[in-house]
Write a structure and sequence with these properties.
By secondary structure, the protein is of the alpha/beta class. The protein contains eight helices and nine strands. The strands form two sheets. A seven-stranded parallel β-sheet has the order 3-2-1-4-5-6-9, sandwiched between helices. The protein starts with a strand and ends in an 8-residue tail after the last strand. It has a single domain (2-242), classed as NAD(P)-binding Rossmann-like Domain (Rossmann fold, 3-Layer(aba) Sandwich), CATH 3.40.50.720. It is globular.
């Protein structure tokens, strides 16, 4: 049976970088799972053309039926899911009192609920010896105005990662990464050159990180080299949150 790695939000940014690195350094079949079907298909085709085993899957991580459809596909095609990278992303910024229920709930359901649905859909696959890596954020451990739902979801992701590690260990390892300012399309139009310069000045490394730098940590935590690491989180922020 093929061992499969599912990367949610896999079409772009950290997810795409992780899919590329997993494909090039492991024998996993890669499922690029995303609500962006053209983007996921394009990346899967790229990986396949490079000699890896990959496919795209349309997945709304906030929808239980979407997860069930992916599970049924894996069962029908003889795939055992051994790695899940929960990277799907959404954000709506604004003061907490201006976030209506739909905006709040969507962020919680995508960012935190997606992790819950992943273990619910594939817990038996993973218990044959698997790993989950959840992509959190520095917003989980530090506060910036305008990110209440996002921070709550990402903070919950850290707590849930620890809980799942306890509930499903030792056969399933569950860890999280905590990226800081990472150069992805999420920053497009968000800050100008002066704003970027000011932000860089607050980062010990004096620059944004790259998606590939986060992907290298994710692939490490998902692999055998991290076999004694579970229930923990790794900050990847260039020192942003190390300043008092």
């Amino acid at each position: 049976m093929t061992t499969t790695a599912i990367i949610t939000g896999g079409a772009h940014g950290i997810g795409a970088a992780t899919a590329r690195l997993l494909a090039s350094t492991t024998s996993h079949h890669i499922i690029v799972a995303d609500i962006d079907e053209p983007g996921a298909s394009a990346l899967a085709a790229e990986l396949t053309a490079a000699g890896s085993s990959a496919e795209a899957a349309v997945l709304d991580v906030a929808d239980t039926a979407s997860w069930q459809a992916l599970r049924e596909h894996c069962d029908a095609t003889g795939q055992r899911v051994g790695v899940i990278v929960n990277n799907a992303y959404t954000i709506t910024r604004g003061p907490s009192h201006e976030l209506d229920d739909d905006v709040w709930n969507r962020q919680i359901e995508v960012l935190l609920g997606g992790v819950h649905r992943s273990i619910r859909a594939f817990h038996d696959h993973l218990q044959q010896g698997g790993a989950i890596v959840n992509v959190a954020s520095v917003h989980a451990i530090a506060g910036w105005a305008g990110h209440s739902a996002y921070a709550a979801a990402k903070g919950g992701m850290l707590a849930l990662s620890r809980q799942l590690a306890v509930e499903y260990g030792p056969s399933v390892r569950v860890n999280a990464v905590i990226p800081g300012a990472i150069e992805t399309r999420a920053w497009e139009g968000l800050i100008d050159d002066e704003g970027r310069k000011a932000l860089n000045a607050t980062i010990v490394a004096q620059r944004f990180g790259t998606a590939e730098e986060v992907a290298s940590a994710i692939v490490f935590l998902a692999g055998d080299g991290a076999s004694y690491i579970t229930g923990t989180s790794l900050v990847i922020d260039g020192g942003l949150t190390s300043r008092a």
